[in-house]
Design goal:
The structure holds two protein chains of two kinds. By secondary structure, chain A is α/β, with parallel strands linked by helices. Chain A is built from nine helices and eight strands. In chain A, strands 2-1-3-4-8-7 form a six-stranded parallel beta sheet, sandwiched between helices. A two-stranded antiparallel ribbon of chain A has the order 5-6. Chain B is globular, with a radius of gyration of 16 Å. Chain B has a single domain, classed as Thiamin diphosphate (ThDP)-binding fold, Pyr/PP domains (Rossmann fold, 3-Layer(aba) Sandwich). By secondary structure, chain B is of the alpha/beta class. In chain B, helix 8 (164-181) links the parallel strand 5 and strand 6 (185-189). Classes of the chains: A alpha/beta, B alpha/beta.
Chain lengths: 203, 201
């Protein structure tokens, strides 16, 4: 898909739900895949979808899910790594997409939950509610394997594909403006320690 | 790694001799140049990932880590991004350092306060000090004054390195302490050490 057709495609996507997609994602993770959950609702719904030790939850540093995931992917090239991010957060650190495209780690996938708003602060619109197209931006950054998930089933098939084929890949899905169903435990050192043990860095 | 060699091709290799001041001479001390000492201390301590937002003064260090296959070296688009990458690499089992200049450090307080410090990440920051000892850009001079107060407010270990003969000791010990205490560390490379940047006019 090229940038122009991605933007045209955007309006025809099914509006899905973050928690629903998070559950479907977690159900597909059977090989110890590391997941970096971006700030706010994104990692709250990841938390709610199942307590995996290979999940890392950000409590601040908005925009850094992709860079953190890139670091994990470089350190552990044999492990699949997923950055789970929202549109508002990704927009804060768009340059990181170009770094991912340049380094081209085969084991990295970026998943973007796009609700077109900063839901957690009062649902103010982001620029993806207007002309900005996440997949088009990723393609422009040089991430060739970037696609919209048209519905839940396509989301699952894109995740399956990302876990098998070489990346970097980006999967974007339109979601509704519902808040997350739970809140992540806010204990940074515990989160970090559990994650490092979960991905085999600490015994 | 292949990534490193790909990036190396696009790395800056030329130096503008008119703008870049000569590093302090090593003839009087018999010591290696500052960048070689830093590079060797990183290697000795298994710090393999080096990511940076470029700086004129840092160019010889950036060049040397690109040339050495031991390192995975590449530019990040922002210092915050570099901090995130090093954080992820540490959690994945690879030590890393961020190279930046003073104005780049000034973009970091939120990421330090909400990621590196509370998550106990031994983030190594090498900051080329602009804004003092002959600065010609008022913007650099002003932002420089925010650096140490921010580091101190966050309780981040920091040293300003001025002497070549102290450099290896400070870098080597600081890396070991950062790892042992799981805490970020900032090493400020003074113009007294690096030669700094010459006046444009």
């Amino acid at each position: 898909m090229d940038i122009a057709s991605s933007a045209a495609h955007h309006a025809n996507l099914k509006v899905t739900n973050r928690f629903e997609l998070s559950q479907r994602l977690v159900a597909l993770l059977t090989q110890g895949e590391a997941v970096i959950g971006g700030i706010g609702n994104t990692n709250f719904d990841l938390w709610a979808a199942g307590r995996r030790p290979e999940n890392f939850y950000m409590l601040g540093s908005m925009g850094l899910a992709c860079p953190i995931a890139l670091g994990v992917a470089l350190a552990q090239p044999k492990r699949r790594v997923i950055a789970l991010e929202g549109d508002g957060s990704l927009l804060m650190q768009l340059g990181s997409l170009t770094t991912v495209a340049t380094l081209a780690p085969k084991n990295l996938t970026i998943i973007v939950m796009d609700n077109g708003c900063y839901q957690i602060t009062g649902a103010q619109k982001t620029t993806t509610a207007f002309s900005a197209d996440i997949v088009g931006i990723a393609l422009g950054a040089g991430i060739k394997e970037a696609r919209w998930a048209a519905d839940e089933a396509m989301f699952e098939s894109l995740v399956r594909r990302a876990l098998l084929e070489d990346g970097p890949q980006l999967i974007a899905a339109r979601i509704d403006d519902k808040p997350a169903v739970a809140t992540t435990e806010r204990d940074p050192s515990l989160i970090r320690d559990r994650f490092m043990r979960g991905i085999g860095v600490k015994a | 790694m292949s990534v490193g060699s790909r990036i190396e091709k696009s790395a800056r290799t030329s130096r503008d001799e008119d703008m870049g001041a000569e590093p302090r001479s090593d003839l009087s001390t018999g010591l290696k140049p500052w960048h070689a000492i830093v590079s060797e201390a990183l290697k000795r301590n298994e710090v393999r990932l080096v990511t940076y937002v470029p700086d004129r003064v840092l160019t010889p260090l950036i060049d040397s880590v690109h040339k050495d296959d031991f390192f995975t070296a590449f530019a990040s688009t922002r210092e915050e991004e570099a901090l995130g990458i090093v954080t992820g690499a540490w959690m994945g089992g690879m030590r890393g350092a961020v190279l930046m200049q003073t104005s780049g450090f000034a973009t970091l307080p939120n990421a330090l306060a909400s990621l590196a410090v509370p998550y106990q990440i031994p983030l190594l920051m090498f900051v080329s000090e602009r804004g003092t000892l002959g600065e010609f850009n008022l913007g650099q001079a002003l932002v420089c004054r925010t650096m140490r107060p921010v580091l101190d407010a966050l309780g981040i270990e920091n040293h300003t390195i001025t002497r070549l003969d102290e450099l290896d000791f400070i870098v080597d010990r600081s890396i070991k302490q950062a790892v042992a205490t799981q805490a970020p560390c900032a090493l400020i490379l003074s113009p007294l050490l690096t030669g700094g940047k010459k006046f444009a006019h």
